[in-house]
Amino acid sequence: MSAPLIVLVGPMGVGKSTVGELLADRLGTTYRDTDADVVAAAGKSIAEIFFDEGEERFRSLERRAVRDAVAEHPGVLALGGGAVLDGTTRGLLAGHRVVYLSMDVDEAVRRVGLNTARPLLAVNPRRQWRELMDARRHLYEDVAGVTVATDERTPEEVAQAVLDAT
Ligand code: S3P
């Protein structure tokens, strides 16, 4: 069992996987993300889990994936955007180097607004994004030691800012 070097949290589309892979390369370690773990455990895509079995089932698979990854993964770890909704996540992350990648609404709608693979934003991306961030912003800030804004930065610049800040 070993602890992650860096845990990335933040909303969908903010670039956790792209930045996470870059960080893992820079640190000579491996990248893991809990969405991929959930997909592997369920044997179907996230959209299929939501539509076939509901969000609650997805959250329960995600809770397990977060617990296992935080306990086992020694490299860079990214959590699904909603993982902070679970009350257990905060305790699991205590003492880890956690970075919140943030972005503003316009950037979010540009990046994920029309992506139907993300079931939480399928109807009215701008309104849904605002509601989602109003509900979650403080949760990201609570679990993370630092916040790195991604607006108008390339993934390489964001990765560098994460390294500078941790
Ligand atoms: C979700 C974010 C997604 C994925 C699922 C739900 C959310 O992860 O876990 O669609 O609730 O914000 P990414 O942040 O990796 O896209």
TrEMBL record:
Residue sites binding ATP per the record: 13-18, 118, 153
Entry binding sites for substrate: 35, 59, 81, 136
Cellular localisation: Cytoplasm
Binding sites annotated in the UniProt record for Mg(2+): 17
Family indicated by similarity: Belongs to the sugar phosphate cyclases superfamily. Dehydroquinate synthase family. Belongs to the shikimate kinase family.
Subunit structure: Monomer.
Purpose of the protein: Catalyzes the conversion of 3-deoxy-D-arabino-heptulosonate 7-phosphate (DAHP) to dehydroquinate (DHQ).
Annotated protein name in UniProt: Multifunctional fusion protein
Gene that encodes the chain: aroB
